[in-house]
Amino acid sequence: MTEKVSPVTSAEDLSKTIELIDVWPYEVSAKRKGEPTEPPSLETLNDTDAELVVQFSRDDDRLIIRLRLPVDTSDAEFLADIGVVYELPTDIQVEPAVIAEFVSKVAVFAAYPFVREAIFGMATRLRVTPPVLGIIRAHPRPGDFARAASE
Around Cβ 77, how many Cβ atoms within 10 Å? Predict the structure, then answer.
């Protein structure tokens, strides 16, 4: 008996059929540049201060989206490389373009708070000025993102 396979034709449809099941830190690191400052104040980064890298992979039953963000401030260097893992039903058929659309419209925005927290938390532990990472915005072309600088 063959199992019926349902085609998924949009990111919206895909988001209704998959579940976020795990968050994987690949690398989380921080390196102080000097002596501690007291009291720490918030530092705002410009878009050019950090480059967000988005990668994804898929196997039969999982979709893994990975965000890597190096941040360089006056007090420290940070790196957060965080993956989010989605469980894919085995009875769906998803074209690569739909996966890319889902990554661009949904998954990156699910993963980014974990990246932001990792960097802010490391700054707090180092007792350096925590960088405020602005929100990210998707560009019209799937897979392109820009971080908005905090005002």
Answer: 13
Give the domain extent around 139: 6-147
Binning pLDDT at 50, 70 and 90, where does residue 132 land?
A: confident
pLDDT tops 80 at residue 55 = yes
pLDDT band of 42, cuts 50, 70, 90 = low
Which of these, 83, 53, 55, lies nearest to 70 by C-alpha position? 53
- Which CATH number covers residue 112? 3.10.420.10
> How big is the chain, counted in residues?
151
pLDDT band at 144 (very low <50, low <70, confident <90, very high): low
pTM: 0.79
β-pairing verdict for 53-58 and 62-72: antiparallel
In a domain, 1, yes or no: no
